[in-house]
Amino acid sequence: MTTKKHQSLKPRKIPSQSRAEQTVAAILEAAACILETKGLDGLNTNLVAQRAGVSIGSLYQYFPGKDALIVALSQRERAVFFAEAEGALNEPTGQRGLKHLIAASVRQQLRRPTLARLLDFEENRPSIAKELAPFITAMTELIRQLLDHEDIPPQPSIETAAGDIIAIVRAIVDAAGERGEVDRTALELRVSRALFGYLGIVGRQP
Question: Relative to the CA of 127, which of 52, 92, 150, 151 has its CA 20 to 30 Å away?
């Protein structure tokens, strides 16, 4: 009896030329569209290649399988979110930085809600979560910097608080996505209340 070899979740190679980058971008967008229309069960490499207009051989040059596609797609979506979230560090106060972060989280979830929900589900799988761990590290550091502002009450443990903030935002925003909510303003308000209450900020805006 042979042991099944675990398939790598990392790209086989990184595109270094413009044409190759366009090919990878087309493959990932095709995967995103298939997830949105057919769900996880409908996602397969042959269909992705067909929709992207590339050969299956070209797809396999970059992605060894379905899970590698999901990881790369999650990384793409998280990169877009993190680029927006980093703007929180340019805000003059910690509270405004947190509101910026909340707004970015809500936009990310409701921009393509079906895709966001499906990726959230897949990202809970240990093998995929391991590949996405650097993002959590970067987000934790970003939040730590926001918590260092003078208008944020001191926390018993900044590390713990940063982790809790990530968990609170994700729980509320993901649940809103599951319910099909579309009102960004109302969702941002609820998340703000939860976060500011957790941090002990009394004078939060309604």
Answer: 52
Total Cβ atoms within 10 A of residue 39: 11
Identical fold, 18-68 and 72-199:
no
pLDDT digits (tens, 9 = 90+) for 76-120: 999 999 999 999 999 999 999 999 999 999 999 999 999 999 998
Whole-number Å distance between alpha carbons of 128 and 9: 8
Residue whose pair of structure tokens reads 């939040």 in the numeric block: 143
| CA 17 – CA 28 distance, rounded (Å) | 17
Cβ 63 vs Cβ 13: under 8 Å = no
In sequence order, which residues have a C-beta less than 8 Å from that of residue 188 and are 6 or more positions away? 99, 102, 103, 106
Confidence check: pLDDT of 31 > 80: yes
Class of domain 18-68: mainly alpha
